[in-house]
Amino acid sequence: MHVLHDAPLAPLTTFRLGGPALRLVTAETDAEVVDAVREADDSGTPLLVVGGGSNLVIGDKGFEGTALRIATRGVELRGTTLELAAGEVWSDAVARSVEAGLAGIECLAGIPGSAGATPIQNVGAYGQEVSAAISEVIAYDRRAGETVTLTGEECAFSYRHSRFKGDPERYVVLRVRFELEDAGGMSAPIKYAETARALGVEPGDRVPLAEARETVLKLRAGKGMVLDAGDHDTWSAGSFFTNPILTEEQFAAFQERVRERLGEDAEPPAYPAGEGRRKTSAAWLIDKAGYTKGYGTGPARISTKHTLALTNRGEATTEDLLTLAREVVAGVREAFGITLVNEPVMVGVGL
């Protein structure tokens, strides 16, 4: 276990933002993770768990406590079951699953961060979510003081949400088990229309696994969603806001606002989101409210490649980022009556 004091946290995040932690502990085994968590809990010290740092917005004042960086490693493949240590790099794990000829997470290629973070946020993109493939999560239960195994059902997954996100002070993920599919080297059925178009197939078709992964990587790169130190469009947390899910009544009111603003023939994006609910596009809302690609004049701006990504152009502070985020939230609310919700975890700050 490695310990540093007054340690910078910005380099551990994809935003490259945030002040220092009083103490930074790097744990390389599950036992070290549990020991560090227990030590913090026993002493009443605030604890911040850091994986790949791709979903964190840390305040400029930093963190008055112990930041625990999970750097555990371990990949085990047994038949169609893939087990990952929480600190494994997610994009590498996806590549391994494709090389092994197993389907189920290939369209989640290129997503930054660690394997242990994926169940917390129920990470999803291009028609796949990890909840469809996760069979078990092994976690340290801080309340019970023991390591527990939760089934996929017990994780209570929903859109960009889980039991872990709903009770963030209780669990620290140690390992994640995925049950994948051997489809003879073919992908899971392609669900996302944009992916299907790029592949030249119909939704529901299967394609070779490697082709699905490479296509998603190209789509993500075109939106600045694949990490590149030389490209400030990737100095972000990816999608900064979740796509709003509305009741039918809320959607009808929203639709009326859209037509008032954009014309009687205007139709907002709408996707099924369970009985009596519809999901619309946060990126569309932001763009139509006037916050287009590249919007902003300061050191924090909307990505030049995708309106859903807020970015650090190199010299930004967290407060610069939050000022932009608040402007976007207020503008979308005024235009369409919908309040956007941030996807990244806020540490010591809020919208």
From TrEMBL:
<keyword id="KW-0573">Peptidoglycan synthesis</keyword>
<feature type="active site">
    <location>
        <position position="160"/>
    </location>
</feature>
<protein>
    <recommendedName>
        <fullName>UDP-N-acetylenolpyruvoylglucosamine reductase</fullName>
        <ecNumber>1.3.1.98</ecNumber>
    </recommendedName>
</protein>
<comment type="pathway">
    <text>Cell wall biogenesis; peptidoglycan biosynthesis.</text>
</comment>
<dbReference type="InterPro" id="IPR003170">
    <property type="entry name" value="MurB"/>
</dbReference>
<keyword id="KW-0132">Cell division</keyword>
<dbReference type="GO" id="GO:0071555">
    <property type="term" value="P:cell wall organization"/>
</dbReference>
<keyword id="KW-0274">FAD</keyword>
<dbReference type="InterPro" id="IPR016169">
    <property type="entry name" value="FAD-bd_PCMH_sub2"/>
</dbReference>
<dbReference type="Pfam" id="PF02873">
    <property type="entry name" value="MurB_C"/>
</dbReference>
<keyword id="KW-0133">Cell shape</keyword>
<dbReference type="GO" id="GO:0008762">
    <property type="term" value="F:UDP-N-acetylmuramate dehydrogenase activity"/>
</dbReference>
<keyword id="KW-0521">NADP</keyword>
<dbReference type="GO" id="GO:0009252">
    <property type="term" value="P:peptidoglycan biosynthetic process"/>
</dbReference>
<comment type="function">
    <text>Cell wall formation.</text>
</comment>
<keyword id="KW-0963">Cytoplasm</keyword>
<dbReference type="InterPro" id="IPR036318">
    <property type="entry name" value="FAD-bd_PCMH-like_sf"/>
</dbReference>
<comment type="similarity">
    <text>Belongs to the MurB family.</text>
</comment>
<feature type="active site" description="Proton donor">
    <location>
        <position position="239"/>
    </location>
</feature>
<dbReference type="InterPro" id="IPR036635">
    <property type="entry name" value="MurB_C_sf"/>
</dbReference>
<dbReference type="GO" id="GO:0008360">
    <property type="term" value="P:regulation of cell shape"/>
</dbReference>
<feature type="active site">
    <location>
        <position position="343"/>
    </location>
</feature>
<dbReference type="InterPro" id="IPR011601">
    <property type="entry name" value="MurB_C"/>
</dbReference>
<keyword id="KW-0131">Cell cycle</keyword>
<dbReference type="GO" id="GO:0071949">
    <property type="term" value="F:FAD binding"/>
</dbReference>
<keyword id="KW-0560">Oxidoreductase</keyword>
<dbReference type="InterPro" id="IPR016167">
    <property type="entry name" value="FAD-bd_PCMH_sub1"/>
</dbReference>
<feature type="domain" description="FAD-binding PCMH-type">
    <location>
        <begin position="17"/>
        <end position="183"/>
    </location>
</feature>
<dbReference type="Pfam" id="PF01565">
    <property type="entry name" value="FAD_binding_4"/>
</dbReference>
<dbReference type="GO" id="GO:0051301">
    <property type="term" value="P:cell division"/>
</dbReference>
<dbReference type="InterPro" id="IPR016166">
    <property type="entry name" value="FAD-bd_PCMH"/>
</dbReference>
<keyword id="KW-0961">Cell wall biogenesis/degradation</keyword>
<keyword id="KW-0285">Flavoprotein</keyword>
<dbReference type="GO" id="GO:0005829">
    <property type="term" value="C:cytosol"/>
</dbReference>
<dbReference type="InterPro" id="IPR006094">
    <property type="entry name" value="Oxid_FAD_bind_N"/>
</dbReference>
